[in-house]
Amino acid sequence: MWQKLKKVHETLPGYAFFGLLELAISYGFISLAIDKGSGWWYLFTLIFLYGALENLFGFIQLSIKKVKRG
Questions:
Q1: How far apart are CA 60 and CA 16, in angstroms?
Q2: pTM for the full predicted model
Q3: How far apart are CA 70 and CA 14, in angstroms?
Q4: Which residue has better confidence, 50 or 69?
Q5: What count of Cα atoms within 13 Å lies in the side-chain half-sphere of residue 29?
Q6: Is residue 4 part of a domain?
Q7: Residue range(s) defining the domain that contains residue 62
């Protein structure tokens, strides 16, 4: 199952989906962090924001590779 999920994740739609999902989760965590004032929520926000950025750069990198291939 994990191999199938990894295979889907490494496609353009996969990068977009997981990036948006992690961005939505980080938005929820930052909302909780502002509301509660707890450092743990800020930490969770940073973790998921890092994952969203990683997926964004993966999406861009794969897009550039596909354009170069033609």
A1: 10
A2: 0.83
A3: 21
A4: 50
A5: 17
A6: no
A7: 14-69
Rounded to an integer, what is the distance from CA 5 to the centroid of its chain?
14
Confidence at residue 23, expressed as pLDDT on a 0 to 100 scale: 96
Q: List Cβ neighbours of 18 (8 Å cut-off, separation of 6 or more).
A: 9, 51, 55
**Where do the H-state alpha helices sit in 1-70?**
2-9, 12-36, 39-69
Please give the structure tokens belonging to residue 50: 């890092």
32 falls in which pLDDT band (50, 70, 90)?
very high
When divided into structural domains, the chain yields a total of: 1
Asked if residue 43 belongs to a domain, the reply is yes
What is the C-alpha R_g of the chain? 15
Q: Identify the residue whose tokens are 């550039």.
A: 64
Residue with structure tokens 């962090």? 33
